[in-house]
Each structure stands twice: as structure tokens, then as C-alpha cells.
Design a protein that fits this description.
By secondary structure, this protein is of the alpha+beta class. The protein contains 12 helices and 10 strands. Strands 2, 3, 4, 7, 8 and 10 form a 6-stranded antiparallel sheet that branches. The protein has a 4-stranded mixed sheet with strand order 1-5-6-9, with no helix packed on it. The longest helix is centred in the N-terminal third of the chain and has 37 residues.
């Protein structure tokens, strides 16, 4: 028998490394990748928040510790209450309107052939900066119809459906038997039917005359149940002419309503002047006496623009400009949710006889609920810190009525107040208001990932 030969053991080159060293190495690698981002976040987010929180407990100069005094001042200041109230209005109105409009656009544009072009048009305002959008809307809503397009359209529609002309500043010529009372110009004495009554006026600028105004002429003699006459501008360009008497160079005043007022105050008849200023009131009784009157509506300022930028409407205008910009964002987000939805569910409901409204309310809207919540919460965060539009659109007199927390914070800190302690307190208030919405959004994202 031969003895078995065993091979000699090879020497081990090294012992296994402990797990602690591997974890340390992995942690070091992770930290090296995260360090730049953490440094940037610390410098741009964490440090400003901490510094602002500490600064809010000091006075305006930062030299004296005042504790909670800035917060007490903030909540006892009327301008702060206005800003908080306006922020609440923004949160209640702007996100809801943007989300609803975005949902409507997203659903309806699905059925259009040129939906891409329409989506581009609706989304285009997002490419405009808030500052530029504010300048655009401030110009659109100017009160002067010659400057603001919105009021120009309103005045144009009003003038289209208004029969009476407007000659602001008109008044009767002295010594011709006319008197003005409460804006009404009328004859001082009564006249009978069958009479010619001329009504010379002054105080009207030549450049305010209508384009169809013609040379004033004498009215034809009326019949027994009529009153005729001429309403004219008793001024000759360049001078000349006899006061109170028709003559060359004197213009007729077209479009003026002329009333025949009975002794009991009732209007027995009326007429409207022609381009040459002549009028003819018909259907009168020959016996009674009448006063010829020009109603005050002839001499008012005419159709005027609405004071959109006043304190009454300024918040509506600013919110409208925000909706104009951000409705496109909501539409794009909701459209992406619609494109990811299984269309077979909607088609099955339609085949079962469901109407389009039921398909929308029972299938489309519930399936879009997660997207709608994300859009709505994102817009809430956005409107809580709105600044640009509120700062640009309101004129000086309306700025207090449109004030929000971000603008108030900037005003007391850098806009002339130079109270950095109170400004820091307002910044912390704004952060506290934004945090719940941010946390809600983060939770929503985590829930979506877990699915």
C-alpha cells in the first residue's frame, strides 16, 4: 500500500475586510457626491432661513434684541391685515380658477383637430415674464379709453347703442331767452305749436363736433301741430357773426334730443336734430303752450371707461392677469394626465349609453384627481408668494388695496421702510404659510412613487 499524498495548503493572501470599513467607504462616496449640493442648499436655503429667523428678533438696525416685538407689530399693523386678507383671497380664487380653466381647456381641446396650435396659444403667456405681463395688463385696463383697450371696447359698444349725442360743457348763449337748470337747457318762456324756436349754444369746442355736422340752416316753417327750430353752435371759427342769430360759419349740432314739455311737466313730443341742427317735433296739440328743452343727457361726458385700476377693482385685475398666465400651465399638466389615462374606460362608458357629462364626472375627473391636486397645491404655493404682478399693475393710489405679504415684506425692508426686523418677521410668516402646502405636495409625490 502506498500512503496518500495531500497537497500543501496555500497561504492566505489577506483577511476579509470588516463590514464597518465597507460602510464607511460607501458613506464617504455618497457624501462626496452630496457635498456640493448640500453646500449650495446650506448657503442658499438653510443659512438665509436661520439668519432671517434670528434677525426677526432684533430691531430695525439689528443692534438691539426686541424679542417678539416685531411679530406683535406685524399683527397689529393695518397694512399687514390687508396683505393677509388679500393673500387669502388669492388662495381661494386664483388656484381654483386656473385649475378649472386648465381642466376645461385640456378636455375640450382633445376633440379639436388643431389642438396642438390651440394649446400653444393658451400656454404662450407662460413664456412672458411676470413683469412684462404686469405692464401689459396695466396698459390694457387704463381708465382713459384712448389708452386702455378694455375701456375703448366698452365705450365703443356703449356709443353704438346710444342715440343721444354728447356735448360736454355746452351752455346757452346769454340774452337769447334760454336758461340752464340741473343740466337741462330750455326756453325761459313757453311757445305754442306752429312756432320756430332756435337754440344757440356755446362752450363746445370745434374739434369735439361730430364728423357729420353741417352748416346750420333755418328750419322750415312748421304746421299748427309742430314745433321746428335749429340747435347750433353760436360761434364762428376765427370770429365774426351776430350773436344768437344763424349765419355763415355757424355749425349745426346733430344728434341732440329736443323735447316739447307741457305745462304739467310731461313730455308731449320730442325729436332729434339733423346734421344741419334742424329739428321738427310733431304730434302736438295746437292749443297748449310748451317749453322747448334739451335734456341733460345731451351734455354729459358720454360713455366713459371704468376705473379698473381703482381700489375697487384692482384685485380682480391682478388676479385676472395671473389666471391669464397660469391657466396654460394647468392645462399642460392636466393634458399630460389625460394622455396617460386609458381611453378604453371612457369608450366602454359611452358604449353603455353614458352621456359625455357622466363620462367626465364619473370617469375622467376621478382618474385625474391626483393630477388636479398637484396642480392646485402648486398654484397655492405660487400665489402665496406672489409679488411681481401686485407690484407692477396697481398705480400708486391703489397699491394699499392690492397689498400682499410679499409686497409688504419688500416695502418695509427695502421700499423705504428700512425696518429689516419687521421685514424678517413677515418673511417668516410667509414661510410658515407656504410650508403646509409644500409638505402636502411632498406627501403626494411619495404616495405616487409608492404606487
Amino acid at each position: 500500500m502506498t500512503a496518500a499524498v495531500t497537497a500543501p495548503e496555500r497561504p492566505r493572501t489577506g483577511a476579509p475586510k470588516p463590514r464597518s470599513s465597507n460602510r464607511f467607504r460607501r458613506g464617504l462616496i455618497i457624501a462626496s457626491f452630496l457635498a456640493p449640493a448640500l453646500i449650495v442648499l446650506g448657503a442658499l436655503v438653510a443659512y438665509p432661513i436661520v439668519f432671517t429667523l434670528v434677525r426677526s428678533f432684533f430691531d430695525r438696525s439689528g443692534g438691539s434684541f426686541v424679542g417678539w416685538q416685531n411679530y406683535v407689530t406685524m399683527f397689529t399693523n393695518e397694512t399687514t391685515f390687508t396683505a393677509i386678507r388679500n393673500n387669502i383671497l388669492w388662495v381661494l380664487v386664483a388656484p381654483a380658477v386656473c385649475t378649472i380653466l386648465g381642466l376645461i381647456f385640456a378636455v375640450l381641446l382633445q376633440k379639436l383637430r388643431w389642438k396642438t396650435a390651440f394649446r400653444l396659444i393658451i400656454f404662450m403667456p407662460m413664456a412672458i415674464s411676470m413683469l412684462a405681463a404686469g405692464v401689459i395688463f396695466r396698459g390694457l385696463f387704463q381708465e382713459n379709453p384712448q389708452l386702455g383697450a378694455v375701456n375703448a371696447a366698452i365705450v365703443g359698444v356703449q356709443n353704438t347703442f346710444t342715440d343721444t349725442a354728447s356735448y360736454p360743457g355746452a351752455k346757452p348763449r346769454d340774452g337769447v331767452g334760454l336758461a340752464a337748470e340741473d343740466g337741462i337747457i330750455a326756453t325761459e318762456s313757453t311757445v305754442a305749436a306752429g312756432t320756430v324756436v332756435d337754440l344757440p349754444l356755446i362752450g363746445i369746442r370745434q374739434n369735439n363736433l361730430p364728423e357729420d355736422a353741417m352748416q346750420a340752416v333755418a328750419a322750415s316753417p312748421p304746421e299748427g301741430n309742430q314745433i321746428a327750430g335749429t340747435v347750433f353752435l353760436d360761434v364762428v371759427p376765427g370770429g365774426g357773426g351776430e350773436q344768437g342769430v344763424l349765419g355763415d360759419g355757424k355749425s349745426g349740432l346733430p344728434g341732440i334730443r329736443v323735447d316739447a314739455v307741457a305745462e304739467d311737466g310731461s313730455i308731449a313730443g320730442h325729436a332729434t336734430t339733423n346734421p344741419d341742427g334742424t329739428f321738427l317735433i310733431e304730434g302736438l296739440e295746437p292749443g297748449p303752450m310748451y317749453r322747448v328743452a334739451l335734456p341733460a343727457a345731451n351734455f354729459d361726458e358720454g360713455a366713459q371707461g371704468v376705473s379698473w385700476l381703482s381700489s375697487t377693482f384692482i384685485n380682480a385685475v391682478v388676479i385676472l392677469s395671473y389666471v391669464w398666465i397660469w391657466a396654460g400651465f394647468a392645462m399642460v399638466m392636466i393634458s399630460s394626465g389625460l394622455s396617460a389615462m386609458d381611453p378604453s374606460l371612457q369608450e366602454a362608458a359611452r358604449m353603455d349609453g353614458a352621456s359625455e357629462w357622466k363620462v367626465f364626472t364619473r370617469i375622467t375627473a376621478p382618474l385625474l384627481a391626483p393630477v388636479l391636486v398637484v396642480v392646485f397645491v402648486t398654484l397655492i404655493i405660487n400665489v402665496l408668494k406672489i409679488f411681481d404682478l401686485v407690484y407692477v399693475i396697481p398705480p400708486g393710489a391703489s397699491k394699499p388695496a392690492a397689498n400682499v405679504i410679499a409686497v409688504e415684506m419688500w416695502t418695509v425692508s427695502f421700499g423705504g421702510g428700512n425696518d429689516y426686523g419687521l421685514g424678517s418677521a413677515l418673511a417668516i410668516l410667509l414661510l410658515i404659510l407656504v410650508l403646509p402646502s409644500m409638505i402636502m405636495n411632498i406627501r403626494r409625490f411619495r404616495e405616487e412613487r409608492s404606487r
